[in-house]
Structures are given as structure tokens and as C-alpha cells.
Amino acid sequence: MKLATDFAKFLIENKALQFGDFTTKSGRSSPYFINFGILHQASVLRNLAKFYADWIRSHPHAKKLRTTATQSSSIHKKTQQQPFNVIFGPAYKGIPLAIALTLVLSTDANTHLLGYAFDRKEAKLHGDGGSIVGTDLSASPKKVLLVDDVLTSGLSLKNAIETIRSAAPRTEIVGIVVGVDREEQAFSDPSVSARKKLEMMYGIPVFSITTIRQILALNDDCHWFSEEVKLALETYLENHIPTTSPALTSPAAQTQTL
Description:
Elements lengths: L1 H12 L3 E7 L5 E6 L7 H17 L15 H7 L5 E4 L4 H12 L9 E10 L5 E5 L8 E9 L3 H13 L4 E10 L3 E2 L2 E5 H9 L3 E6 H11 L4 H14 L18
Parallel strand pairs: 3-4, 3-6, 6-7, 7-10
Antiparallel strand pairs: 1-2, 4-5, 8-9
Helix pairs in contact: 2-4
């Protein structure tokens, strides 16, 4: 809980949590916006990456991402002791996050082969070509941790997952970590949250450092924003929370839409 509190405080102090009248990528009119693009100064970006790194290192759920070393080769053993060997950040705001997190985690043991990758909005037909920049995910099977700033409707993460699977079918996405889960309905499916929809569709665990409801609850003690802003956030959440909470079923059983 301390990590979630400290992360929320970090976002507010650096003006990444903004209030006003915004339109989300999914077309929803929102009273708040989480803008990681404003976290561009080197020291601030490093601190942002450290929050993700601390979650990965210490959070109990991170154990779900871990694999067991089985190979005898020293190189394979070092990479397999890690839960992943590539950090993938979706374009655009996930790109600096993935690179910064790769550098921060590179100080850990057995991470000298850790790499990063990100997608292009449009596939490149000249030069190095392709839809993915950075680590060659198709050269050999990789274990990828996908990181992003915010989870809203799930569309951006859906596109990233499908880009990776299309370009590198043998690559395994071991998990997704976002900074803030807005806890909203999946796009075109109001019965389920965006997080659960992604997990049901792709069988990939989705985690967040904090959620908008955690930030709201913390505000009662921290007084980061006014009662008027809090009411606007609560009203918005009431209008966009999932209408039901169905049990998770196998990915194959789900309708492949968000």
C-alpha cells in the first residue's frame, strides 16, 4: 500500500494527474487525465521507472510472472532465472518508460541480457523495416513484460499484444504492468472491466501499481484535491464501472472484442 501511496503522490506532485475536461482515446469525456508525457525530465523519468522496478521486485503478484531455470547453459540459465528478458512499451508513452525501466532493472543480478522493444504506429517498409523496434522478438523465443502508463478501455494494450503475437508468434507475454488502472469498462463491453477483458481474451495477467479508486481513498487523508474534484471523479467512475463482474473463463471462450 505504501508503494501505491508514494506513486500517487509522485504523480500529483509532478502534475501528471490533471483535472479538467478531457477526451480519452476511447472517446469518453473524462474529468481527469493521467499524463506521463509531462514526466520527461531525466531525474523524474528515472524515478518513474524506479516505481515500476520496485513493484516488479517486491509485489507478491510479481511471483506469478516468474519462471524456473531449467537449462544448463550459463546464458540460458541467467535469462531463465528472470521472469522476462524483454520489456515492451507501446508507442508512444510506453517507449521512454520501457527504456528507462530496462536501465533501472539492469542494476539487478542476472539482467545483463535484458532488452527493450516498442512498436511503430505504422510498419516501416524501408531500412530495418517491420512493426517492432529494439530487441528482435522473432530471432528466438522471448519472454516479454509489457508496460504502459494507464489502462482505460484496453484498446492500446490489445493492439500491442496483437502486434507482438503477429510479429513473433513464439514470444510469450508473461504479464502486463501499468501505472494506473482507471478501473473502467472494456470498450464495447460494459459488463466487464478492461483489465479482466484483457486477461480473459489473452490469458495474460494484468497488474497496476495503483488504481483511481485507491487514489480517491488516499485523498481522504492526503487532501490532494478538492471535494468538487472528488465528486466529479466519483460520478465519472459510477458511469463507467463494469455493470457486472463475471468470473474469468478461458481465453478461447471469450468474444475477441474490446
